[in-house]
Amino acid sequence: MGLKPTVTTNYEDNKAAAIAPGLANIEVKIGGASDGIPGRVYTISGETAKEDARAIFKGGPLLKAIYDAIDAGSTQIYAVRIGTATPATVRSYSGTGSLDTATAALAATIQAGGVYGAELLTDPPLWLMPSTNDDHEIDGDSYAPFSGGSDGSALSNGDYITGLNATRDRKDAAWIHAVGGNTGALWTAILTHCAEMKTTYLAERFAMLETPPFTSSAERGTPQYNADLDDYVDAILAMMATVGDKNAVVLAGGALFLNPDGEEEVHSVVSAVAGTVAGLPIHKSWINKPVKNIIKSNPGEDSLVPAWRPADIERLLAARVNMVHLEEGMGYVITENLTGAAAGSDYGQANELRVSYVAAKAARNAAKPFIGEENDDLGDGLAAMTKAASKPLRNLVKSKNLIDFEVSARSDADDRDLGNAYLRIGLRHVKHFKRIVQTIWMKPQE
Prior knowledge:
The protein contains 11 helices and 17 strands. The protein is α/β, with parallel strands linked by helices and 446 residues long.
């Protein structure tokens, strides 16, 4: 326990844990872009969200991911451009200008047109004046735009870490997506950030993690394509062998989407799944929920990159990896909602993790007013705290996000001397169908 009086939350498996709401369906996205101030957190929301995002970021992977998420259902995103951008500093003029000294008339012309003059390296200095008409208006064809800058599109691990750190004060964000962050080292950095958000900032946050993109020069279904796909699945399984974290929700593969310019393009499915999830109540399973903004192809499997084979899906699900697949009669749907928690963990379902995190935040907020109150021998303080922590959990039951809960509190003599009290909260989650087995009888049963 730190020196500052506070209320903290622990998460335990196979027992009632100190947990329970207010986590909204808000996502953090960090990634490379063509414009926008690096490191600044922009709030993208409302009816003009896509237009606002385009005005800020102009282009790049971050903008594409924002479009995919909004098209799928996201309503609020905290977006951070990462990378080191270099401002444009060079402008060239055509040879239609005339050489003259810097006079008041020239300065007025430049100011009126909003254009800088280009100083010549002469002694005394002279200026290259763009061509003007009789009204002293600058000829727009006589010069080129500023050039020589860079949008910082080659991102380093440090750029991603800087972007993660920029989002620390956005405690209402439920999950984070690092666009293009698809290496083992970046997965580790993102999950470390999620852990830090809970322990240091008391803000639950999990990660939607990308896998590397699939590439093959062969046609789908050919032996070479299948061999490339085998290698791809093997590589993902090798990455997952190092993951045992409930805050990891890994989504493999890509699909065909419209980019901000209205062109068909393959992107990771992470943003579209995140947008789909943002439109669901927190307790809802993601299984078989349609990802509506994937472009339909004929045959339909051509919209998925790669086109998963049944064996691939089984192998990936066994390793706690999610994906989007084509389901007959339903379209493109989310296959599962698994977290990357270690085998046997109670926190293996992403929807249940979300409810647990919402419950934790609510119970913690309900307990905060008791800091500084009496921790008496009769236990009246504990009883009052238990009652307060139960209220938001009861609201979760009323809203059908939970089935039931248990709350108990303890503080022995030594704990009272130290000022410690312990709440144990157990949650009974809403359950969903996962396998439906049909039995067909040739004849009616008597």
